[in-house]
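To fix ideas, we give here one paired sequence and structure record:
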Amino acid sequence: MYNFKNDYSEGAHPKVLDKLIETNLIQQLGYGEDEYALQARDLLRKKLVKQDAIIHFLSGGTQTNLLVISFLLRVHEAVISAKTGHISANETGAIEATGHKVITIDTDNGKLSPNDITHILQEYALAPHVVKPRIVYISNSTEIGTVYTLAELEALYLSCQKNDLLLYMDGARLGHALTADNSDLTLAAIARLTDVFYIGGTKNGALLGEAIVFNKPELAVDFEYAIKQKGAMLAKGRILSIQFLVLFTDDLYFELARRANALAMQIARAVKDQGYSFLTESTTNQIFPILPKSIIHTLSLRYQFYVWKEIDQDHAAIRLITSWATNPDQVDAFISDLQRA
């Protein structure tokens, strides 16, 4: 049984494991003050071309979203998200549990635009009787595999600045977004065009870990207190920092993401060759082919995936995700079975 359900079903890239073993008995300070954290932060700042960025390492994406958003919002403020956004659809109401509203917007492609922001600000203009929108939350790549272009991010950030809003990017699959064929964004551009974002390691070669980047240092004042208070400060913080040091040395992070995307696009081409369409036009490692339910049933006997959306009585969209460690033979087998089905 092959698994296309997620991009974290395997462990870590061997280079990450090797470095963890190599440094295992070298004594270090705890709580993110180890020498590897200093090196990893310096390396990331060079990639970002932003020497004043404040960087913290956390263990997971939901934890990161919860900490950043709850830290930045005052008691009466809210966050804007696409309805498909992870904080709205897949985090068990974590943001709402802190007393903050998630204002959702229906979108066809999982992305937000300046027009969306304008509409929400008009809808929530009756102060002080409604919550005050303060953060715009976006994902790149989105939960349905689409990516933001440089022009789209520039326009969105300009809209946020004009309206005194903070732009926060969920980068759980940021590597896949940046290495997509239709992406013209870079880490440096994201550092320039967001207030806060994070670089996801869990889904791209790390055992676990996300790197939060505050592009405006003033927003990060006292964030360490929030990390500790919420139980997110690892005593052995080296476990996180070592992994990011390895992943961003010689751009291994991007190499792994590019590989995952290429495998997904190989499946996508085969789906198109069979005459089937897609729920979304994804260019990353998540694809959503629409297939007859009879074929979905046949494929499910050998492959694990999610049935994402019912289209009609006879068809449904499934989600297939490839990882940096997905075996090409697994992809070839899936394509062969699809063609035979």
User: Anything to note?
Assistant: The first helix runs from residue 14 to 22. The radius of gyration is 20 Å.
